[in-house]
Specification:
Strand order of the largest sheet: 3-2-1-4-5-6-7-8
Number of strands: 8
Largest sheet: 8 strands, mixed
Structural class: alpha/beta
Shape: elongated
Number of helices: 12
Helix content: 55-70%
Strand content: 5-15%
Radius of gyration: 21 Å
């Protein structure tokens, strides 16, 4: 890559993407994004992060790195769009360029995305982000893997600009391994949050007294589990719509009938999304359970 400050495209300017961009711009990097069709809230986040709005064509031409940070359902279509723009410009496309897929997709999906850039001048890095958006001293980890060790090392070097990059290296490591790690971690963390949600709602459906008894028993015999439930269920609610696709990707990663566990959890998060838009009965049930658990401490 060039010895000058790196120029990066971060798409999209969601909570994670904008926070990553803000960290990069605070270190002097130029960060582009595409705000076409985006909401005013997104535009405000991008502005606060110091991101520069460009068309997809322009950001492909100007960026050294293109970081795709999107809901899982949009990962493939965005990569296809970048590949189409690159193909249109052909030899006029400045080199080198690297596409970094940072989405919560399963290894097979990320390999499909990587294949779009095979034989082109655009390099590819598979990255899985673990942790919340950068804030203060808090930094998520970009676990990264690639077929080209040189490109992987160059991506790791972005650590000097505020990113926390942890490369996966070793025999047989390549595209798909960072995504496999992300799937495994999210399957445990977001998966257990889905289980907590499922059983609280099921207990309450039996009767409110059953849910109260469940809370008291957890307080007595499983206080660590109850503490985890109290900490993870409330912040899940506004994110549930994003976690549906992630659970479906994890189901494909696990495979077979075992993957049905995560298809079921995807349905739970879909139920929460519908409750938010509907009568909010499930949201109220979860909120009341959590509040009673806090009061019982």
């Amino acid at each position: 890559m060039s010895s000058v400050m790196p120029r990066l495209a971060v798409v999209a300017a969601g909570a994670m993407g904008a926070a990553v961009a803000k960290r990069l711009t605070s270190f002097g990097c130029t960060v582009y994004t595409d705000l076409n069709g985006r909401s005013e809230a997104t535009r405000k986040r991008a502005q606060d992060a110091g991101m520069i709005d460009l068309s997809v064509d322009e950001l492909v031409l100007k960026s050294d790195w293109i970081l795709s940070i999107l809901p899982p359902r949009d990962a493939v279509s965005f990569a296809e769009k970048i590949q189409e723009v690159a193909a249109k410009h052909g030899s006029a496309l400045p080199s080198p360029r690297t596409f970094v897929d940072c989405n919560a997709v399963n290894p097979e999906t990320v390999k499909r995305i990587a294949a779009l850039f095979a034989g082109t001048s655009i390099g590819f890095v598979d990255a899985g982000i673990i942790g919340g958006p950068p804030k203060g001293d808090q930094n998520p980890t970009f676990y990264a893997s690639a077929e080209d060790v040189r490109i992987l090392d160059e991506f790791t070097a972005l650590s000097k600009y505020g990113l926390k990059v942890s490369p996966l290296k070793g025999e047989g490591v390549g595209v798909g391994d960072a995504s496999a790690l992300k799937m495994s971690y999210a399957g445990i963390t977001k998966g257990t949050t889905g289980l907590y949600t499922t059983m609280v709602l099921a207990a309450h459906a039996s009767s409110p007294a059953t849910a109260d008894a469940l809370m008291r028993e957890l307080q007595t015999s499983q206080p660590i589990l109850l503490d985890r439930l109290v900490k993870t269920v409330p912040p899940m609610v506004p994110k549930a719509y994003r976690w549906i696709g992630e659970m479906e990707e994890i189901a494909e990663f696990v495979g077979g009938s075992e993957g049905d566990v995560y298809r079921g959890i995807a349905k739970v998060y879909e139920r929460i999304e519908k409750s938010i838009a509907g009568d909010q009965e499930d949201i109220t049930t979860l909120k009341n359970f959590v509040e009673k658990a806090k009061e019982s401490r």
